[in-house]
Structures are given as structure tokens and as C-alpha cells.
């Protein structure tokens, strides 16, 4: 299996280990398989597989330069006792109308752990496979959850250094505390005076800066990425779509071969793209519903074919989705353009120059697997309350975006196909918003909110939250967006 850039030709393709180390292609594009795998499997084979077995199977379809043993060791190390549920990703049915795929049982309480526990395993083995002797510098822009999850995943991994940039004032109190309390001699975390899009744009620019890259190479360093732009992070996310399907067959909520729809709270378009790849691999998915918060650039895109980031940027209570430039959409555009890299180049150039582009009717016709909707701040609060009052079940604000959009979709478009909502974070990661929605009273932030939510829910506090407020915090380091490169230079 070879990987090419969405902006480059197939004759420049590289193998998966090299693509994982590089993260982003040198031309600014994203790596995609040259020939998308068409594995032969029957769905009934998947029923009864453990999460680890499912993940290994999916990885083996894409990463064939790794040995069976390397993949086995990777999934065993990634999906173990650091998760607080033996199923890793349990699915739960609620009378409020949906199935919730709980992706938050990992060490940092958000779905990013599913990919970022395994990425370091794949990365360190890739370094060996490729004979790379540079120190790998994981450069990451985060909207809140990728930062902690990548620090946690790469903590003290030999030959790696992590530098995380997050938007100053743009993350929740628990997210901030999680980032500032990470331990490990190879971790740096920096606030940027700007929003996530600015941080991500600068990270991409630094990646594309060849002169800087050469300077670093001389000093023994090489950049890589832990964002969902990295194919080594995206592919592991396909596993939970298959695993959920198999669980629902095992629970007899669906029959083998039945279709499911998924609603995905979306920011950088990585999670939902993994669902689209699952469908391409043959999983019976009817629709993938792209759910946005008030930053609803993707809702408009799917409704009109026009992507336009020239609009106000809102800081919402679902901060991990406060994004106006969704990087992974480029991989979908590449498919919709029948793998024509010149079309992608042209659209991405328009986006860079004018902040907008319009796709052709032919391309739009290729997007029929998707539907889209968004939830306002008021919708999110109402949905948290509705689900809590119906089921005694607390959902976090990101999950609530998807849950609200799914609920509307079921009422207006399709009320018969079973609907799975991707539950991307634990309510304990955003206790202030969850409590305020449920109690409609003012809430004190931080530890007080955590304890108050715990009293209300009467459940076991996740380990990741229990210890959080006892750990020592680093002081916050803040830089301007144009100082990010300088920071890297001085700290490597
Ligand atoms: C990152 C994140 C999202 C958005 O996922 P993308 O892959 O960026 O679309 C949604 N919810 C939570 C809690 C997240 O951390």
C-alpha cells in the first residue's frame, strides 16, 4: 500500500511508515491511499471480536509494511488498562432516541485517546522501519483535546519531543488543567494569543518552511504531526465504527446487513472522515451526519457546495469544535474530484487567497453519503437537559451538538434507521456547561463543578479527573502567533 498527497501525483507515493513520520506532505497536502483497500471480510466475522482485534484488523488493511506482530504489540499497548471500560468503546441505548458510542473512556476523557494511544506505537515502529535517526518533534495545534491526548500518548517516549500550541483563553478549565499538569521530560505546551485556526495555520506554515526544516535536520530533528492530518491517527479511528456495528449486532439491536446512521460532532473533519472510510470499506452506513456548533461553515458547505470561512468566529461551550478551516475535508474533496490533485490544488489555493471556494455540481453529487446540521448554544443546553431528564444520562456539550442534530434529523428526514451519536467527551471534561444546562443555576468552575456533577450523577469519577486537581500545574506560557517559530527554535 502506498500513500500520496492530495496535492501531488501518485508517482511520488511513499509507504505508510514514511507517511506516518512525515505527518503532512511537503506540498501541504494530506496523505491518502493511492488505491483504497477493498478487503474481503464478512460482517459476521467482526461480531464478537474485541476492540483490540478489530483495531488490528483495520490497521492491517492500511499499514501493510508493519508486521503482524508489530500491529499486535501496538494495539495491545494502546488499548489496555489505561481505559476505564474493558470494552474500550461501549455503546449504550437511550430512550431519548439514540445510541451513544462512548469514546471517552481513555486517560484524557475524549475520543482523541483512541487514536493518540496507538499513534506513538505506530510512530516509534515507523522510525525503526524507515531507519530514521532523527529526533521526532511532534508539532501540534490543539482546540483543547488533541494537546493533552498527544502529550499523554508520547509522554517519555524515547526519540520524541512534543510541542503543543493551544488558543489562549479558548479551552475549558479542565482541558487547561489537563494540559498544564502533563508530566514527561519531552513535553512543551504553549498558549497562542489567537484562535485554533491561527495556531493550525502557523503549524502548517512551519511544516512547509523548507529552510527551517533543513536547519532542524542539521540539529538532528524532524517534524511530525499528531493532528488528524496524520494518516496514522486517522486510520485507527475507523475501528470504532466497525466495532460499534458488531456490538449492536451482538446485542440484537440490528441484524447483520442492516444499515446504521452516525451523527458526528465535527471540527477538523477527522472523526467523520473515518466513518466515511468505514463506509468505503463496506460497512453498511446509510448517512453520516456532520454536526457543527455555531461555527457552522460545514453545514453551509454541505447544503450549498460553497465553503466560506469569511464569517465571525465564535468561542462556544464546545471549544474542540471551534474551527473554521477543517483540514480533513481536503481528503473528501480529493475523492469527490475523482482523485484529481489539480482540482484540490486549485480549491486549496482559493481557500488560502480568498477564504472561500465553490465546488462543481459533479463534485457535490459525490457527497450524498453526508447530511449536515448545526446546534446553537441554546440548542446544546436544551439537549443536555432533555437527555438528562429522559434517561438520567449526562452528555458533554460536544456530544450534545451531535445529539441535538441527530434528534432533528430523525424528526425531519429519517426516523427509522437506527442512529448512533458519537459521544466524544466525558461530561466531567465540561462540568460547568453540563451542570448549568441541567440545574439552570450559576455554577462555580473547576473542582467544585466536578464534585457537584459527581453528586448529581452518583457515579464513579473517572481517574483522569480524580487526580487532576492535586497535580502541580506548570505556569502558562503565552506567545503571539508570529512567535511560534521563534519558540520552537529556542526550545529545541
Ligand atoms: C476534536 C473533538 C471533536 C471534533 O473532532 P474532529 O475530528 O476534529 O472533527 C469533537 N468533540 C470533541 C470532544 C473533540 O475533542
TrEMBL record:
UniProt key word tRNA-binding: no
Any one cellular-component term (Gene Ontology): cytoplasm
EC top class named in words: lyase
EC number of the protein: 4.2.3.1
GO biological process: threonine biosynthetic process
Names of the cofactor(s): pyridoxal 5'-phosphate
Domain Threonine synthase N-terminal, residue spans: 2-79
One family name in Pfam for this protein: THR4_C
Catalytic activity: O-phospho-L-homoserine + H2O = L-threonine + phosphate
Keywords: Amino-acid biosynthesis, Pyridoxal phosphate
Residues modified to N6-(pyridoxal phosphate)lysine: 112
Presence of the UniProt keyword Amino-acid biosynthesis in the record: yes
GO molecular function: pyridoxal phosphate binding; threonine synthase activity
Involved pathway(s): Amino-acid biosynthesis
NCBIfam families linked: thrC
Record function comment: Catalyzes the gamma-elimination of phosphate from L-phosphohomoserine and the beta-addition of water to produce L-threonine.
Homology family: Belongs to the threonine synthase family.
Official protein name in the record: Threonine synthase
Organism from which the protein derives: Paucilactobacillus vaccinostercus DSM 20634
Amino acid at each position: 500500500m502506498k500513500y500520496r498527497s492530495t496535492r501531488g501525483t501518485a508517482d511520488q507515493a511513499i509507504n505508510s511508515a514514511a507517511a506516518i513520520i512525515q505527518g503532512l506532505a511537503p506540498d501541504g497536502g494530506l496523505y491518502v491511499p493511492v488505491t483504497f483497500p477493498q478487503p474481503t471480510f464478512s460482517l459476521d466475522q467482526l461480531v464478537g471480536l474485541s476492540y483490540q482485534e478489530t483495531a488490528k484488523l483495520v490497521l492491517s488493511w492500511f499499514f501493510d509494511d508493519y508486521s503482524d506482530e508489530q500491529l499486535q504489540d501496538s494495539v495491545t499497548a494502546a488499548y489496555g488498562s489505561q481505559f476505564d471500560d474493558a470494552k474500550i468503546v461501549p455503546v449504550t441505548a437511550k430512550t431519548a432516541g439514540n445510541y451513544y458510542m462512548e469514546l471517552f473512556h481513555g486517560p484524557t476523557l475524549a475520543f482523541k485517546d483512541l487514536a493518540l494511544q496507538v499513534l506513538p506505537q505506530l510512530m516509534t515502529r515507523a522510525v525503526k522501519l524507515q531507519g530514521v535517526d532523527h529526533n521526532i518533534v511532534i508539532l501540534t495545534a490543539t482546540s483543547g483535546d488533541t494537546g493533552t491526548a498527544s502529550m499523554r500518548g508520547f509522554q517519555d517516549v524515547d526519540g520524541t519531543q512534543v510541542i503543543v500550541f493551544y488558543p489562549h483563553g479558548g479551552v475549558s478549565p479542565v482541558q487547561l488543567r489537563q494540559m498544564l499538569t502533563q508530566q514527561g521530560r519531552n513535553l512543551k505546551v504553549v498558549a497562542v494569543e489567537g484562535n485554533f485556526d491561527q495556531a493550525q495555520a502557523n503549524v502548517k506554515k512551519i511544516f512547509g518552511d523548507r529552510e527551517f526544516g533543513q536547519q532542524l535536520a542539521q540539529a538532528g530533528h524532524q517534524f511530525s504531526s499528531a493532528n488528524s492530518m496524520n494518516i496514522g491517527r486517522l486510520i485507527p479511528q475507523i475501528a470504532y465504527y466497525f466495532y460499534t456495528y458488531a456490538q449492536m449486532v451482538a446485542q440484537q439491536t440490528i441484524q447483520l446487513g442492516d444499515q446504521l446512521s452516525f451523527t458526528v460532532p465535527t471540527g477538523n473533519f477527522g472523526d467523520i472522515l473515518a466513518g466515511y472510510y468505514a463506509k468505503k470499506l463496506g460497512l453498511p452506513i446509510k448517512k453520516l451526519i456532520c454536526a457543527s456548533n455555531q461555527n457552522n461553515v460545514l453545514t453551509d458547505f454541505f447544503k450549498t457546495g460553497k465553503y466560506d470561512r469569511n464569517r465571525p468566529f465564535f468561542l462556544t461551550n464546545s471549544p474542540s469544535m471551534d474551527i473554521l478551516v477543517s483540514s480533513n475535508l481536503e481528503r473528501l474533496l480529493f475523492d469527490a474530484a475523482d482523485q484529481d490533485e489539480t482540482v484540490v490544488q486549485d480549491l486549496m489555493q482559493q481557500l488560502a487567497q480568498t477564504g472561500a471556494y465553490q465546488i462543481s455540481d459533479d463534485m457535490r453529487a459525490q457527497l450524498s453519503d453526508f447530511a449536515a446540521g448545526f446546534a446553537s448554544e441554546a440548542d446544546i443546553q436544551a439537549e443536555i437537559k432533555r437527555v438528562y431528564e429522559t434517561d438520567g444520562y449526562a452528555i458533554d456539550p460536544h456530544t450534545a451538538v451531535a445529539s441535538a442534530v441527530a434528534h432533528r434529523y430523525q424528526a425531519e428526514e429519517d426516523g427509522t434507521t437506527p442512529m448512533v451519536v458519537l459521544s466524544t467527551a466525558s461530561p466531567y471534561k465540561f462540568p460547568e456547561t453540563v451542570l448549568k444546562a441541567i440545574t439552570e443555576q450559576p455554577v462555580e468552575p473547576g473542582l467544585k463543578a466536578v464534585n457537584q456533577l459527581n453528586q448529581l450523577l452518583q457515579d464513579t469519577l473517572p481517574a483522569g479527573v480524580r487526580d487532576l486537581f492535586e497535580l502541580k500545574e506548570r505556569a502558562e506560557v503565552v506567545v503571539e502567533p508570529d512567535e511560534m517559530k521563534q519558540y520552537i527554535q529556542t526550545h529545541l
